[in-house]
Amino acid sequence: MKIKSIKGVKDILPGEIEKWQWTESVAHQIFTRYGFNEIRLPIFEDTNLFKRSIGDTTDIVEKEMYTFRDKGDNDLTLRPEGTASVVRSYIEHNMHGQNPLTKLYYFGPMFRYERPQAGRLRQFYQIGVEAMGSQSPAVDAEVITMLIEFFKALGLNDLELQINSLGCKNCRPQYRETLKAAIEPHLNELCTNCNQRYKRNPLRVLDCKVPQDVKIAKGLPKIKDHLCAQCEEDFAQVRRFLDAVHTAYTVNDQIVRGLDYYNKTTFEVISKTGLGSQNAVCGGGRYDSLVEDFDGPPTPCFGFALGMERLISLLPEEKLQSLSTPPDLYLVSLGEEAQNLAFATAHQLRAVGLYVERGFEDGSMKSQMRKANKLASRFALIVGDDEIKNQRYLLKNMDGGEQWEVSANALAEEVLEHLKSLD
Ligand code: ATP
Ligand code: MG
Predict the structure, then answer these.
(1) Whole-angstrom distance, CA of residue 238 vs CA of residue 245
(2) Residue nearest atom 26 of ligand 1, based on CA coordinates
(3) Cα–Cα distance between 403 and 405 in angstroms, integer?
(4) Pocket of ligand 1, candidates 12, 106, 120, 121: which has the most ligand atoms within 8 Å of its Cβ, to mutate?
(5) Upstream peptide bond of 211 is cis (omega within 30 degrees of 0)
(6) Which of 112, 353, 379, 384 could bond to 64 as cystine, CB 3.0-4.6 Å?
(7) What is the pLDDT of residue 277?
(8) Dist CA 22 CA 395 (whole Å)
(9) Distance between CA atoms of 172 and 178, rounded to whole angstroms?
């Protein structure tokens, strides 16, 4: 029986992983400048954590969660997103009251039972960021700007930042009713999903992807015309800050986000060219009452999550070439004695920091040099019977062709010197 990976779940193989490692290292670098620290969270949690935070009537909770009972009959779920766990951890470890703010980021896999297709997997990876403990619109603008700086550092310039405000608990309930009243006459033209949404979560109608519904949604009342004075001012302030640092954006009043906990500033980053219909690379926004909903202290928050697979697929192919590291040195050993010696020689050279490759089977000079070439090794070290007898090995520059004799008893030092002289 051949066992295969599960549908919608992928291996990330060497050749591809270099892009992931690089992307993660750039994230560490940029986020650190803004004072964010990494947090590692569990992959599974109590099912109620997700039900209560993401919302019972959302697609994620209704259709997409991997929920199971373990042998102790605990109701558990593989995390479909990261914010709920960050909030749980924040409260559990009393992180509130930190000055200037609690600023966290995470990397890791998320699980959603969706229809697998290009850009949509059942296990996918996210980078997430959460800034917890301030209402200031400057936080919104700073976190968004950090994200854009991250994209720039990756060489991605073809992305569009779209922002919106969803209002707050003072203005949204009223807008919700206005919207419901405006949707009602269209119910028989809208899809069955939207008929459900109308009852339970009418804002989601604005987010529907069915073409006919998109047309109707365009004519519905806009949240921007129904914001309270405070929300309007805060949203204007976010835009002024973004303008001040030339972070380009467009206002898209159709953005509502698929999770219940968002309010005020929300945003998405989409790729206009590279991703087809799964074009959202990143989504996020403000969630000011989630911590309190879980009996934590009042803690307004702002965060985002970005999809690694979609992001990685946008990285230029040339980037990959510059990321793969060729060996510093390939050990060519001719004859049995040299083969045996190669074990200790490789060890000795690796101990001084070199990336050393070797073959484990006997082979002719020609075939071993071919392997060294194939790996694009910078140097070859040739050891045969004569070299062992004379205690002088041959170091060859694979690029220029020069070669030097290096003495066996000062091998590491001499090899390092030659390598350095060519850098
Ligand atoms: P979409 O509208 O594409 O379903 P979403 O609103 O469900 O996205 P979020 O929950 O905001 O997505 O997650 C943030 C990001 O994670 C998305 O912008 C996307 O890049 C990525 N993402 C979400 N679901 C998947 C998935 N099933 N496979 C791959 N990436 C995903
Ligand atoms: Mg989704």
Answers:
(1) 11
(2) 120
(3) 7
(4) 120
(5) no
(6) 112
(7) 77
(8) 32
(9) 10
